[in-house]
Amino acid sequence: MYEMTGKNRDNYNKNYIAYVNSFDPPTQHFKNCFRAFMVGGLICCIGQFLRIIFEEVFGLYGDELAGMVSVVLIFLGTLLTGFGVYDRIGRYAGAGSIVPITGFANSVASPAMEFKTEGLVYGMAAKMFIVAGPIIVYGVLAGTIVGMLYLFL
Amino acid sequence: MQTIFFKKQPRIVATGTIAGPKECAGVVGKCVDKALLDDMFEESTYEKAECKMLKYAVQQAIINANSTEEEVDMLISGDLLNQIISASFTARDFDFPFLGVYSACATLAESFALAATLIDGGYQRRIVAATGSHFSSAERQYRYPLELGNTRPPQAQWTVTGAGGAFIADMGTTNSNIAITSATFGRVVDFGITDVNNMGAAMAPAACDTILAHLKNTRQSAKAYDLILTGDLGALGSRILKDLTWEKGVDIANNHVDCGEIVYNVIEDEFQGGSGAGCSAVVFNSYIFDKLKRGELKRVLFVATGALLSTVSSGQGESIPGIAHAISIEVV
Predict the structure, then answer these.
(1) Which of A15, A77, B275, B294 shows its CA 20 to 30 Å from the CA of A22?
(2) Chain A hits for B140, Cβ within 8 Å
(3) CA–CA distance, B113 with B129 (Å, rounded to integer)
């Protein structure tokens, strides 16, 4: 009457996967892009605002200025992660809050919080880079390749 | 034998359930023994909270059955965490023997079937079968840290925070009229789904296989049941299950309900509904069991479904095998 298990199922499986995929709701590109643009843009505006403050009030310039802005943004991203707010922003904004440096701070701080229960060394410290690790590895790799090209071309 | 019949009709005497705040906002809220306001349950870690919930469910099932821990012959339990630590750590606090079982979210049905088998065979008289899960501990093991600002895909489900247990006993020891009359053990079915966010599609073929096998072996049509209750297929998985059974000439559209689909008032990120071992444990042992007790349901086919994957297997690109175990529960 019916046969649903067994070894020779490859052809049927393809049909089934196609059938399942037909249920995928269409991705709302415009809405996602709009949200990402607004939130990401807001984070960048905060960065620019900080830049102006540090330049005008504290008289920083060049690398010092850029470093200071990054430090404050990283602090804010981590702080909001600690308060449990950043994941809500991320759910709304998608790439808008993942791509800026605050998103990177979030990806380091969230596993650190999560795995603290397994101890400060093997838990928090060891697991801290499970999300950010690949970004660092391939970021350095890409940087090296581009640097090499720049050197020889 | 895929389907076995219990001639002595082991009885479900009572149940004990506990669920988190998000779950209690839904249909089970009025039926659970304890509705948690805080999903930490006064513990320091989510794993400890899950364990404490499971322990509460076991104790409450024993209390609701007007029995004592000394009378219980065995605990059959399992959960989703690696090496089923919640179940084992729960069993550590009790004096009776413990069987740890695992078939992901189908663990409750497997526990019920094994308990009924042992009682029907005359080897044990009183067994507690319980499972539970916790959103935060499952999320950490299978997905990402809680506070990570990522988005969830629309096929995703939400692991239920909760635990439920049932006190199953020999009919000579109780006057309960809710009996387990047969069980169909599921085969592992894999239709090649690799998307770990689409558990419903991975498990629906297994549910279909078990339901068809059960109906065939018991020579019944789907209409024989007031309710065919699946575990945690979610809204999408339920839709697929209806299509799959329809394709095989069985229509369950009118009497099929999915625990995962009904457990939440979907308002935030639950999308397709609930999942996890606690999903069917909470819904069946509270909401459905209450209906059985009141006589609103007479014959229920409970088909809990499980996705048998691990983070290692999905990382290596393996597809997700599904399993479903069915038990038929009748008011006699």
Answers:
(1) B275
(2) 114
(3) 9
Same-domain status, B240 and B154: no
Distance CA A11, CA B84 (A): 36
B167 & B185 share domain: no
Q: How many residues does chain A have?
A: 153
* pTM tops 0.90: yes
Give tens-digit pLDDT for B53-63.
999 999 999 99
Contact A131 B146 (CB under 8 A): no
Neighbours of B97 (CB within 10 A): 13
The Cα angle at residue B68 between residues B64 and B71, in degrees rounded to 5: 120
- Contact yes or no for A106 and B148 at CB 8 A: yes
Q: What is the DSSP letter of B149?
A: -
Out of B154, B198, B209, the one facing A4 most closely (by C-beta) is B209
Name the interface residues of B facing A (CB cutoff 8 Å). Answer: 44-45, 47, 140, 144-152, 154-155, 187-193, 198, 201, 205, 208-209, 212, 216, 236, 239-240, 243, 248-249, 269
Q: In terms of pLDDT, which residue wins out, B30 or A12?
A: B30
Pair B155, B192 in one domain:
no
Question: Does residue A115 fall inside a structural domain?
Answer: yes
Structural domain ending residue among the three candidates B130, B145, B172: B172
Q: Which domain holds residue A66?
A: 27-128
* CATH number of the domain where residue B260 is located: 3.40.47.40
Is residue A106 one of the residues assigned to a domain?
A: yes
Work out how many CB contacts closer than 8 A connect A with B. 101
How far is the alpha carbon of B148 from chain A, nearest alpha carbon, in Å?
5
Q: Mean per-residue pLDDT for B121-125?
A: 95
- As for the ipTM of the complex, it is 0.86
Judge if B210 and B285 occupy the same domain.
Answer: yes
Residues B124 and B204 in one domain: no
Helix A86-93 vs helix A62-82: crossing angle, to nearest 10 = 100
Structural domain includes residue A19: no
Asked if residues B59 and B16 have their Cβ atoms less than 8 Å apart, the reply is: yes
B157 and B71 within one domain: yes
Is the backbone of residue B196 left (phi > 0), alpha (psi -120 to 50) or beta? alpha
- Contact check, Cβ <8 Å, A90/B209: no
Region B166-195: what's the mean pLDDT? 93
**Structural domain count, chain B:** 2
Q: How many domains does chain A have?
A: 1
Domain membership of residue B160 as a residue range: 3-172
- The minimum CA-CA distance between A66 and chain B, rounded to whole Å, is 25
Compare CB distances from A90 to B150, B154, B198 and report the shortest one's residue.
Answer: B150
Instruction: Please choose, from the candidates A113, A100, A106, A103, the residue with its C-alpha nearest in 3D space to the C-alpha of residue A44.
Output: A100
Q: Decide if A74 is inside a domain.
A: yes
If you count them, how many residues does chain B have? 332
At A1 the pLDDT is 43
Q: Which of B172, B190, B216 is the last residue of a domain?
A: B172
